[in-house]
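[job 4417] fold queue: 2 targets
>>> target A
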Amino acid sequence: MAERTKYILDEADLPTQWYNVVPDLPEPPPPPLHPGTREPVGPADLAPLFPQALIEQEVTSERYIDIPEEVRDVYRLWRPSPLYRARRLEKALGTPARIYYKYEGVSPVGSHKPNTAVPQAFYNAAEGVTRLTTETGAGQWGSALAFACATFGLSCEVWQVRASYDQKPYRKLMMETFGAQVYPSPSDRTAAGRAILAENPQSTGSLGIAISEAVEQAAADPGARYALGSVLNHVLLHQTVIGEEALRQFEMAGDTPDVLVGCTGGGSNFGGLAFPFLREKLAGRMNPVIRAVEPAACPTLTRGRYAYDFGDTAGLTPLLKMHTLGHGFIPDPIHAGGLRYHGMSPLISHIYELGLIEALAIGQQECFAAGVQFARTEGIIPAPEPTHALAACIQEALRCKETGEEKVILTALCGHAHLDLPAYGAYLAGNMVDNELPDAALEESLAALP
């Protein structure tokens, strides 16, 4: 009998709870601080931006949170998502390693982002909110929130980073098809955007600027709230359905990962896969090396400073203790738009400081080479973001080829690139360059930390 290539759970196996890693950590993460008083933020400080249910999830000390049945019902459109064994890639590399990937590109918008967009829209609608504002980089998050808002009858406004708005027109069309209004950021619709444009009319934008615009709009309207696609605790919480399913699928496969690899921008895809496995590691039930991979052009974990900083450019958000390149940092317009954020999730930053995970940065040319090899062997063209994880997987698999180790490697393939093909066009035409971050530019940005 042929060995299995894919491991598929039944709808009945859909997780009923999200997992909160905080109670299992050796020490709790530092709290967010109020930008004015520099005192820890309380629920009332977050109420203009988020519904009460999400504020409670942001600060909870509960290990598990029940997933509402209305959310699970929408999840069933695509979850549980498949786990694949990358046998053809293994063969092409000539490695004794076994490579698995958890594929989130089966969602309605082709990425992992609806795992949190759906509950965020649900909780907002349940509390009478009528309008959500948000930012998006490459457009995966904006597409996911537009889909979720359509599902629960909310209006949706998206500020898309100008570089991606120009690079990825089909993302804008997807968002508009789901009913969202999409604006390039920086825009002239907000004070934050106008200030940036006055300084630099040709600004390519950043996630920090787009967050400022979306937050400004939400705070000014009592019927509106803001939704974030990564970074915060409740977002990473919702994504743990990925890792919980993967644990069940590894039981089906009769295997255990030795190395877990995920790409990191704000941290939601990485945390979603890694946190349930980290729970098992902390409990002594398995011992995988957990590795975060980021772009060399925006290397928050590997070169950023662990410090309190604003989550946005204009300084409208609470101060977060995180690995940061400085809230004014404008990354080069690399093709992995979803990884162009100046800070890393405070929770992942804290876990990195505790020494529980590793991190490395890779240039985009090596990443796209990995993406092309994966497409030509496994048949899926990966989004630019997970090519970073695939490049690190291939590095690990080739080390196993040298040593003869039969390691088991797991990665999160968090989306496909059907709407990101111009990025592959740039790579295939030889027009892609690696954007290194000069030390002087980094020091200048870090000098402005609050």
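>>> target B
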Amino acid sequence: MSDPLRRIDALVEEGTLPSPQVRQQLRLAAGLTQAEVAAAIGVQRVAVARWEAGLTQPHRGNRLKYAHLLRKLAAKHPDAVTGAPDEG
């Protein structure tokens, strides 16, 4: 996806996650820490750090919660994804 709007649209699909960089940008735009995101999802902070670094992916249950959170953040902070490179 090269168009920022397409990246935002991808967030709308249940369970679809944006690139790790966009995940981090959305969290930072909302002023949230990794620990706050982790607590909301019910995982350790290190899990969120690994997801944002692209080292691991959340399993199905956590993926759905994380995708839901990211969709909400994208709706509140659409400019957070406009300059991000595409996921490979």
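[job 4417] complete. Note on B: The CA atoms of residues 19 and 88 lie 8 Å apart.
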